[in-house]
Write a structure and sequence with these properties.
80% helix, 16 helices
């Protein structure tokens, strides 16, 4: 049901991939100013991830997810009314704060309802829902944006409303039961006081590498669509189809590739090969941008994503304790959110000043360096919890 709620919510996620095109083509912002506005989504994501992790540990993931989904509805509806750089940046900041509180709470809910031996596959199932929705949303978004960009924002609002109502309907009674069970357990045993992730130096270093990977990967949501439009000369419909293809491919391959990694790979090697493939997928765009190359690049990016993102969440869950999962998930989510601030501005600036070829080659080289870093950092971080570079699945203490 968590995955189904996520599917409904993300099926309406048409806004983010088209914000860059919306600002440059419809509102006639410069590429650099569009990047600055997109950075406010990242600022809101940082605040939302921190806030979501904080209040999830205090009031529970049920209320955080419910409020995030329902409060997103009016904010999505307001976006079309803001047509200046400052106004659009402000409403995107507010919307991002509200919507991104959902992410750490959702991750905690997955660890709460999934069996320990299925934790990575549980995150993968949720990501499959995200990507199935992402395959539907942008493809439909490309068609709707050719008619009117306002449809994107109102469709996102409708999807958030439906997801919120379904989540409340299904999890309301279950949350009360789980809360009572947790209270009984706490009365029976002493609750172990656990340290803050902000004092966990090994985890902080890991989060820095997650942030650097995200800076590379999130070109997908900012500069890549602009590259498709301005350099590869794709129509908005074709941009939507390529993004939809990526979501469909992940839905088709993710569970099989995750199980393959769980059976044959270590955590460190999985992150190594996944990050490496993401880097190659961007670097090859500097050589050619024919439709065949664009599809091959997107295919490699999808496979790399499958072998990176769900395992990042698993590693975070393994590093955290029982009573501070929200804080750990929130801090790891902040590493992604900081990347949302940096990526649009840096990416659009490099593309504007130096050209897309420099951007793609630089992204590829950076990602390959990060892949090597992951290979050594992950065993070093997890070894003190007796999970050093082990085969998956791994039990969570």
């Amino acid at each position: 049901m968590l995955a189904l709620v996520m599917l409904i919510n993300r099926a309406g996620s048409m806004v983010l991939p088209f914000l860059g095109v919306y600002m440059t083509n419809h509102l006639h912002f410069s590429i650099e100013n569009s990047g600055i506005v997109l950075s406010f989504f990242g600022i809101g994501s940082v605040i939302g991830s921190w806030l979501g992790g904080l209040i999830t540990d205090k009031i529970g993931e049920y209320w955080v997810q419910s409020l995030s989904l329902l409060l997103s509805v009016p904010l999505f509806c307001l976006i079309p009314f803001f047509t200046t750089e400052a106004g659009l940046a402000g409403i995107i900041l507010a919307q991002s704060i509200v919507s991104e509180t959902f992410r750490p709470a959702n991750s905690v809910a997955i660890t709460k309802y999934a069996k320990p031996e299925n934790i990575t596959r549980a995150f993968s199932l949720n990501r499959m829902a995200v990507n199935l929705g992402f395959s539907i949303g942008p493809a439909l978004g490309g068609i709707l944006s050719a008619i009117s960009y306002e449809f994107l924002f109102y469709s996102n609002a409708l999807a958030a409303l439906l997801a919120g109502l379904m989540y409340i309907w299904f999890f309301r009674a279950r949350t009360r039961l789980a809360k009572q069970q947790a209270k009984n357990v706490k009365e029976a045993i002493a609750v172990k006081k656990e340290s803050s992730p902000y004092r966990d130096h090994k985890f902080l270093i890991y989060c820095v590498f997650c942030m650097m990977f995200s800076i590379c990967f999130f070109q997908l949501f900012s500069t890549l669509t602009i590259f498709y439009k301005d350099t590869a000369h794709l129509s908005q419909q074709n941009i939507g189809y390529i993004l939809g293809y990526s979501g469909f491919l992940i839905v088709l391959l993710e569970m099989g590739l995750v199980q393959l990694a769980e059976k044959y790979f270590t955590l460190a090697f999985t992150m190594l090969i996944g990050t490496f493939l993401c880097g190659v997928s961007y670097a090859m765009l500097a050589l050619d941008y024919s439709m065949v190359v664009l599809l091959v690049s997107m295919t490699l990016l999808c496979i790399g994503e499958i072998w990176t993102l769900p395992f990042m969440s698993t590693i975070t869950a393994l590093r955290s304790g029982e009573n501070n999962k929200g804080a750990y998930m929130g801090l790891n989510g902040m590493s992604f959110s900081i990347a949302f601030i940096i990526t649009p501005y840096i990416g659009t600036m490099i593309a504007d000043k130096l050209g897309f070829n420099v951007l793609w080659i630089g992204t590829g080289v950076l990602a390959i360096g990060i892949a090597i870093g992951f290979y050594f950092i992950i065993p070093w971080m997890l070894k003190d919890k007796n999970k050093m570079d082990g085969k998956l699945p791994l039990e969570i203490d």
